[in-house]
Amino acid sequence: MKKRIISLTLSLIFMISIVQSYACTGIRLIAKDGSVIYARTMEWGALDLNSRVAIIPHNYSFTGLTPDGLNGKRFSTKYGIIGLDMLNKDFIADGMNERGLTVGVFYHPGYAKYPDYDRKNAANTISAQDVPNYILSQFATIEEVKKGMQEIVVVGVVEKAIGIVADAHWMVTDTNGNSIVIENTDGALKIHNAPLGVITNAPNYDWHMTNLSNYVNLSMYSVQPKNLSGINFSPTGAGSGMIGLPGDNTPPSRFVRATAWTQTAREIENGQEALYESFRILDNFNLPLGPDGAEGADQGQNQDLMRSSTIWTTAWNLKDLTLSFHTQHNRRVRSINMKAIDFSKIGKEIVHITLDEKKEQDVLDITPKLD
């Protein structure tokens, strides 16, 4: 009996760590030449997601997951897809199709409420886990996504790998730089226009937008000196325009910071410079393991395999159709050129690529030979 209690306790601790582990941040940048970069961090403080790059060919068949199993909507890929999966499953966490449409899934605990599952409508139902696969395989523009999401039902399904329903919301961006956030609130589909191109986690997206009103004083310019009773007071250094910027790692604070940094970013000439800028901005959101570096980090499992709660960071160039990424183990940026892939000739199965061949930093030794 004592062993069963210990086992149950450990299981509950593990489940709690999963529930509290996501702390992702997503941004979008638009360069002067029209290039669009969608970028994000992926945090999971409890254990490694073991993500892989997944290359999905044309006409690959998916079946939507429901509470009854794999009996949901059947759909095939109209467009080739490159994405990062998780937990060794073919659920895309972050991805882009060959029409330059991107989707990122972000944890939405306590606020995602899906409609009740109707077994009679199973053939038109998918799970939250299926949403990125469905959007990327079927649509090319934001308008198509808006229309298409109205025609299906997304339900909550327990993800066996973690033992809980996948509470999620999604940011979608197209080649015109248009972004939306898709949520399920009180059992109803909500699609929010996201002109700032920023997303984090809970609460709901419209709450985050309202909360920005509390930070209208933030500026990219220094505060001007003031004279009080004959005494001059000046800022003690650069950065005074951002006094009051919240520095903690909660989703509301990260949303404000992501907005502040993206809206005051340097002028960006092209996609390559936007790529640099996206990684620079997201460096502000790298989170340590803990004990409070990210949600769930203090309950971590297998932390001997982890170096950071930020497992990977991606940046997608929607114009050039490239994926760039680095990981917790190796900060060297690696890239994949989607234009170089013929999705009709790569076979019938998903191609997987390991993110890190070696889980160590790739260091270039530049010590000169002086003898």
Brief summary:
The chain is α+β, with helices and mostly antiparallel strands. The chain is built from 6 helices and 22 strands.
Description:
This protein is α+β, with helices and mostly antiparallel strands. The protein has a single domain, classed as Penicillin V Acylase, Chain A (4-Layer Sandwich). The chain is built from six helices and 22 strands. The strands form six sheets. An eight-stranded antiparallel beta sheet has the order 15-14-13-8-7-6-3-22, with helices on one face. The chain has a six-stranded antiparallel beta sheet with strand order 16-1-2-19-20-21, with helices on one face. Strands 4-5 form a two-stranded antiparallel sheet. A hairpin with a 5-residue loop joins strand 13 and strand 14. It is globular, with a radius of gyration of 22 Å. The N terminus is likely disordered.
Strand residue percentage: 25-35%
Order of helices and strands: HEEEEEEEEEHHEEEEEEEHEEHHEEEE
Alpha-beta classification: alpha+beta
Termini, distance in Å?
A: 71 Å
Topology:
Blueprint: H1 2-19, E1 26-30, E2 36-43, E3 52-56, E4 61-63, E5 74-76, E6 81-86, E7 89-97, E8 102-107, E9 125-127, H2 131-138, H3 142-149, E10 153-155, E11 158-159, E12 164-165, E13 168-173, E14 179-185, E15 188-193, E16 198-199, H4 205-211, E17 226-228, E18 231-233, H5 251-263, H6 271-282, E19 310-317, E20 322-327, E21 334-337, E22 351-354
Parallel strand pairs: 9-10
Antiparallel strand pairs: 1-2, 1-16, 2-19, 3-6, 3-22, 4-5, 6-7, 7-8, 8-13, 11-12, 13-14, 14-15, 17-18, 19-20, 20-21
